[in-house]
Write a structure and sequence with these properties.
Helix content: under 10%
Strand content: 15-25%
Protein name: SpoVT-AbrB domain-containing protein
Shape: elongated
Order of helices and strands: EEEEH
InterPro entries: SpoVT-AbrB_sf
Largest sheet: 2 strands, antiparallel
Number of strands: 4
Length: about 90
């Protein structure tokens, strides 16, 4: 885990206190963080785990116009012996 120390100041922002975070971190504006205060003076921040966004198919539907549907005859596969079928026959 990479650890760096930087000096910064606490300032007033409205009715709250704020800390300026220097550039060069992997943090971005708007990230939601959990703040832990220990003994009234030690602060630690952890990012809140956001649920993963769901993929919106409606945004890409119809965008790949050169693709064709799979023909029904191309959906059929030949029967073949599977490894676990052979193993089951040898065990029994």
């Amino acid at each position: 885990m990479d650890k760096r120390r930087t000096r910064t100041r606490i300032f007033k922002s409205g009715n709250s206190l704020a800390v300026r975070i220097p550039a060069g971190t992997n943090l971005t504006a708007g990230m939601e963080m959990d703040l832990t205060v220990e003994h009234g003076m030690f602060l630690s921040f952890e990012p809140v785990h956001q649920p993963k966004r769901k993929f919106n198919v409606a945004k890409v539907a119809g965008s790949a116009k050169a693709l064709n549907y799979i023909k029904d005859e191309d959906r059929l596969f030949e029967e073949r012996a599977l490894r676990w079928d052979r193993e089951a026959d040898n065990d029994g």
